[in-house]
Amino acid sequence: MKQFVDRYFHLVFIGLFFALSVFLLFAPPIWDENVYLTLADHTLSNPSDLFPSMLSWVPQPPLMWYLVAVFSPAARLAPLLTSVFCICFLFYACKRLYGGDVAKLASAALVSTGSYLLFSLVLFPDGPVMIFMAFSSLSFLCWVKLREQKFLLLLGLGLALAAMSDYTAVPILSVTFLVWLVILRKSFNWSRFFKLLGVASAALLPLLLWVYSLSQIYGNIAYHYSSVNSLFADNMLLRLALNVIYFGPYVILLGGFPLISWIRKPSFDLDSKLLLIYSATVFTFFLFITPLYAYTHPPYNRYLLPIIPALTVISARSLAKEKLHARFLILLPQFICASAISALILLSSH
Predict the structure, then answer these.
(1) How many whole angstroms from its chain centre is CA 150?
(2) How far, in Å, CA of 139 to CA of 133, rounded?
(3) pTM of the prediction?
(4) 70 with 116: CB under 8 angstroms?
(5) What CA–CA distance (Å, rounded) separates 78 from 21?
(6) Cis peptide bond upstream of 79, omega within 30
(7) How far apart are CA 85 and CA 235, in angstroms?
(8) Residue 290 pairs with which residues in a beta bridge?
């Protein structure tokens, strides 16, 4: 019996995750979801109009609302299916890199993480950009370690999809990959470097075309973002301090109960350090790039969602050293809390 439970441990959490997802699939819109529903409706009624004119500003690259349009009227299927993709790819990548036990634990830890269920259903680009950034970064690791060219192409696909989900994916992944290249320079020759550069450049073409077309209609779009986000401003040190105070505890919450295993059964080899560098890049980026209203209103903690898959891979490698009962004691309470909070938020508009 123990062997059976150990073998199918991850399916308990994945099964509960999908049961809750189906239950919450038709929850009414919350927060600013109506913006993306409106954009999706406009896309359906005016498929030739790529730049909806009923808004004074198109808020993000179009992938999210096009996905919502495809899956209308079950709009929440759009982020949910990207979430399914993330679970499957995380399992596959971890199995190739670290074996089946870590792959199972990574998928269980992912669906147990705070905010993951919520943003697997909320119609914001934050969930998809988290997933596609993870897809690209894990493909990079697989490409370096397994030396299979298909992962280079998957890296590019993930970068393209992440970029078309949210502009912020481009600087974060660019800095991450640059730092990784410096650390892994002994694994690279010029041929591999230029292959990576070529794939990354091709992956960013759709975003460049989108930005160019957008600028033809709205003018200087860089001005829009500089008007609502600022890199250098008065009291920058104060804002950085406030952001550290605000974002710091949220990182701990996203790490969750598996952080216990980080201490009990640490697993911090080069791969884990690379994933921590990626997480630190996300964290640092949003310490500086935050809305100017952050002085009066706290910045959105959902900005840090892209670190979730990276943390779960590290956690899974530590959890693999734990006994079966310890794995349940660590993951089950976290899953229950995360699910209860997500369900409460999604059903709060009833």
Answers:
(1) 22
(2) 10
(3) 0.90
(4) no
(5) 12
(6) no
(7) 42
(8) 230
